UniProtKB/TrEMBL annotation:
Bilayer-crossing regions: 42-64, 71-94, 100-121, 133-154, 160-182, 194-218, 230-251, 263-287
Database matches in InterPro entries: Na+/solute_symporter_sf (IPR038770), Put_Na-Bile_cotransptr (IPR016833)
Signal peptide segment: none
Name the UniProt record assigns to this protein: Bile acid:sodium symporter family protein
Lineage of source species: Bacteria, Pseudomonadati, Pseudomonadota, Alphaproteobacteria, Sphingomonadales
Keywords, in A-Z order: Membrane, Transmembrane, Transmembrane helix
Source superkingdom: Bacteria
Gene3D superfamilies to which the protein is assigned, alphabetical: 1.20.1530.20
Amino acid sequence: MHFPARLRPDGFVLALLATVLIASFLPARGGAADFAQFIADAAIVFLFFLHGAKLSRAAVIAGAVHWRLHLAVLAMTFGIFPVLGLLLTMLPLLDPDLAAGVLFLSAAPSTVQSSVAFTAIAGGNVAAAVCSAALSSLLGVFLTPALVTLLIGGEQAGQFTTAAIVTIMLQLVAPFLAGHLLRPMIGRWIEARAGLVSLADRGAILLVVYAAFGAAVAEGLWTRTGTGELLLVLLICVVMLVAALMLSAIIGRVLGFCEQDRIVILFCGSKKSLAAGVPIAGVLFPAATVGTIILPLMIFHQIQLIVCAWIARWYAQRNPSQGAENGGDVSRDAPGRS
């Protein structure tokens, strides 16, 4: 049976769903879990190395100094999202612990790897996405505990700071800089193999999903929470994501950004990081409540990947030349011209 192109299931979305199912029934445990996490981390390092090698020096400089774009993303992540969280936690049927989880979700930093990957797939400003998402993660080390303390009353936020900064520098910033420094030697080879970068984008996301979701399942994700609570949290996460996507799109247009920059705001401004959120929660909350606290974040994380994968593919199909060739090159879209 042949489906019309617009009704045909997206292969990457199907791969994401399959990954979640595999992680649910066959989660990695013990040494296998450590190995899965190592492979996922290695894939992310390779992904950022490729993006560093692909981007021109002009694109990196333009992305780094694009302060208006970064402020727009930060406003979404640490300003508008907490307001959405406060509004949604007013629902009378929401369990107090799950309500705290929703507030924690709203205070978490933006995810880096999938934001950059989806921006690249959609043909957006990859250089600015790398800088904006990394900045969000770095500031999130300080802002997320502060927001959690303000909204929920968490404690001991400072203990996470050093480890998070070191992880971000070694896993994301260092390989990006290494790839960019080696660009004169390998840049042409990378540009001639756009499919390699595309495969790395998608493969890194699938590996991260399996490692993170599998770890949650191994810790008893599906036995801690009832069906009714799961459905309610699922509904809240869907509403929050839809609102965030709509507000991100509106902000990009109202502030007059070009389409490549609007794509960055859309993907970086609407996401939340599971990789950064889980360790922060482990520091801020008692061990007995961490599982419930991070449940909304885990659900939101999966939904955002599936929805944003579809949106990214829609952009790529609409403008195939941007997604395949320029990789978000913003050399012609310098700050102030957005």
